[in-house]
Amino acid sequence: MAETPQTFWESWWVRLQALKNVPQLVRIVWDSGPAVVSGGLASRLLVALLPVAVLGVSKRILDAIQAHFQGHPLPAAFWWFVGAEFALASFGAILGRAIGYFDSLLSDRFSRHVSILVMEHASRLDLSSYEDSAFNDKLERARVQATDRIGMIQALGQVLQQALAALSLSAAIFWFSPWLLLLLVLAVVPAFLGETHFAFLGYAKDVRQTPVRRQLDYLRVLGSSKESAKELKLFALSGFLVGEFTRLSNQIFGENVSIARRRFLFGTPLSLLSTFAYYGAYAYVIYRTVNGELTWGTLQLLTGAIAGASLNIQNIFSTFSSIADQSLFLTDLVNFFQVTPKVCSKKDALPAPRPIRQGFVFENVSFAYPGSERRVLDRLNLRIDRDERIALIGENGQGKTTIVKLLTRLYDPTEGRILLDGIDLREYSVEDLHGEIGVIFQDFMRYEMSARQNIAVARIQVSPDGAAQDDAIREAAHKSLADEVIANLPQGYDQLLGRRFSGGVDLSGGEWQRFALARAYLRDAQLLILDEPTASLDARSESEVFQRFAELTQGKMALLISHRFSTVRMADQIIVLENGRIVEQGSHQQLIALGARYAGMFELQAASYR
User: Fold this and answer.
1) I want to staple 398 with a disulfide (CB 3.0 to 4.6 A). Which of 116, 147, 243, 394 is the partner?
2) Domains of the chain with CATH codes
């Protein structure tokens, strides 16, 4: 984000510029519920016209009573006016309830709608975006705006209602004295400018505090989560974490108090101006009435109009200020929606080949992660043929997982190209390509859903009949050995997993990994990628998984990453990576016979088991 403006007029320019975000919010609001929005606006417009209507009827009643005391008979329609005032008051009460009803509906509809928009847009963004701390700050603020901006939506309706009410009431004041109306308006301006200035300082403060608040959230989770509980106790970390949380929260508290104090000291005198203006106008009207220049009804009309107009004018400035300042916060949401993915499908992109006839080819592929000049891959040339099982080995940071990310187009190469059946991978539809790849990363997800859903998410876009889908889920669970875990769960496939929600059952790392493997099997993809798939399994389970894995990959391409040499021996080709390049390639027997890097690593690992 650009440097926060410091001067008063610069802050006002930024505030006015931010109002361009309002039309986009209005479109989102309208899309969230056209009928609800229309009902709320109609109710507010009618409510806005009621005050002047009530004052008009009251004037007729009071003037009639005054004339009656002077010896004139009550007009024939007198009691009709009394009934009309009661009817208007009742109608106003009904409309007030209606506004509350529509606002409640709109709040739910908008929160749901904009949250879905944020989730959908976030799912389309590049993986590199999530590895950028500045983007994560923006995403955090966008998530907050997805639910926090309902107040601004209601403010938009309120300012329309207030403006119409102020216009109708101001017409009565203008008829009496245009200068009196001008006084009421001008008296509100200083308070308005002061309030919006401090509101802008509050926005700038919130932007500055976003990284600190993320740290506080992290410390809050770290200090009270199941995952960290053991080390918290053993390392006595509680005092350290509490101290860090206290230090950061005190920093935020100090900034908040500073702005609140200045707002109180400077804002209070400015707000008194509008109070003085109102009571000055009020006293002037009473003076004219006492001198016999105005009737009781006119007194009632003018004092009511002055009070109502003064209040609505103040509210208009205050509400508009709120809208202008909240539109600054809305900038984060709008900017988030403007972030576009770089890795995406071209127009008229090709469907993924079915079946794949040749395979994947890396041609002089180099890659460096955004923000880094270090090449994780350096002019890599690699071929994965159809029906071939490839194993990637090497020390950490040598590019094994990066190859997987490039194959699946989570990233595009910095240099070079990747071909699939002779065509650049970038020519294919990303979504279609993903449908042909089953992958499990080292940091696989643990979905705190039912056991069935944990497996079914692998084919969530596929909707066969329920029985066929359930059969496929059970078959995948059998191949991954997850069915042994499920058999011991109280509710079987319907058992909620994890401890986040009531009734959930937590699993060991190895048990969670079996569910991740089941997802890969259910995918039934042409390319199966397993990145350290058995890291959390015991020796017996690992052997059984790979026996099934060997059967599953018959007739398919498979890419296996593992530090366990006992598991990579089954591969047709073993690729040894070092400094982003292939330094050895061949079958297990060939590389052992070569007696170089692979043979040395294999012997070193084998010696630890002797």
Assistant:
1) 394
2) 17-206+249-338 (1.20.1560.10), 359-436+527-610 (3.40.50.300), 448-524 (no CATH)
